[in-house]
Amino acid sequence: MIVRKLSEAKPYEAPNHRDYKSLRVFGAEMGGSQTLIFGISHFQPGGGAGPDASPPEKIYHILKGELTVIVGGKEQVARPGDTVYIAPLMPNLQVQGPRSRDVMSRLTDADVQGLGYYRFLPEQVEVGGVPVWLARTGFSGELGFEMFLRPENAADLWKAVRDAGVTPYANAAVEICRIESGMIVTGFDYEPHQATPFDVGLDRLVALDKPGEFLGKGRLAEVAKNPPNRFRTLVLEGDEVPEYGSAVTKDGEPIGTLTSPTRSPKFGVIGVAILRTDAAAEGNIVEVATGDGTASATVRNQSIYDPQKSRPRS
């Protein structure tokens, strides 16, 4: 046990901070913790810290005043008594596609052959000589892997993967793939505290029939009896791609939202949508708002590409 008095805490300079004073109590040169840094900071009005101040995860507890926290473009004001958690800065690199397992097998001694779909290795492994957390996940709708790592190692991992012969692709390409596959993204298809799992096709993940309680279980049990909305794919007519969040109507009546649209090279203009249940039947014809009016669209019950997810499960 270590008990440290406030008078023993030492001042320190934190990177990318401004107009502040800080005392370090535990961690780093103060000892007592290998992974956690605990300190006390006093920010002057207008002071603050940048999002890239340091890679570890952060927890702020507000003692006095207000702290405006901006993460991922979202702003929230924390007040006395509030505790704020900010996830660590961890770059993410994907290796996706039918040959991704072969590529990863050449880059690591970890058991990528035995790593199951949507599973991860709890301990760090080396990929191309770089320590990463490895998961068999991705947003491509194909067999794939994701690696999470510290920022200072990102360039080395990128080089190792590129040297293995892979072809880089940008966010625009994977966005097409994930919409074809019917995969949801928070902030576009799902807004926390505004939608339920039933709205976005995650019924199977709500374990209402198993023992144990969780926040909202009773309310979700009521929603499950007759879910008001369903998550569907829409196949649109024409070449115009609607905006994200475009209104979906039936005979002029609002019935839902096209949450994520795209132009697929294989399937044309498509999108995923949250539709009112009574309008979400397979083959139903609806209208989607566009810049010049509306475009007709046909409802598909499942994702338009590999609805059984046989490719990523392979």
CATH homologous superfamily title of the largest domain = Aminomethyltransferase beta-barrel domains
- Number of DSSP E strands: 17
Order of helices and strands: EEEEEEEEHEEEHHHEEEEEEH
Q: What are the low-pLDDT stretches, counting only 5+ consecutive residues below 50? A: none
In which range does the helix fraction lie?
A: 10-25%
The CATH class of the largest domain:
Mainly Beta
- Please outline the major beta sheet: 6 strands, antiparallel, barrel
Classify the beta-strand content into a percent band: 25-35%
> How many structural domains in the coordinates?
3
Overall mean pLDDT: 90
Class computed from helices, strands and strand pairing: mainly beta
Instruction: Using the 3D structure, state the CATH architecture of the largest domain.
Output: Beta Barrel
What is the first-to-last residue Cα distance?
A: 50 Å
CATH topological fold name of the largest domain: Elongation Factor Tu (Ef-tu), domain 3
Tell the overall outline.
globular
Number of helices: 5
* Radius of gyration, whole Å: 24 Å
Output the strand order for the largest sheet: 12-15-14-13-16-17
Q: In words, what does this structure look like?
A:
The structure is a single chain. This protein has 314 residues and is mainly β. It has 3 domains: 81 residues; 77 residues, 2-Layer Sandwich (Gyrase A, domain 2), CATH 3.30.1360.120; 120 residues, Elongation Factor Tu (Ef-tu), domain 3 (Beta Barrel). The chain contains 5 helices and 17 strands. Strands 12-15-14-13-16-17 form a 6-stranded antiparallel barrel. A 4-stranded antiparallel β-sheet has the order 8-11-10-9. A hairpin with a 2-residue loop joins β16 and β17. The protein is globular and about 70 Å long. The relative contact order is 0.09.
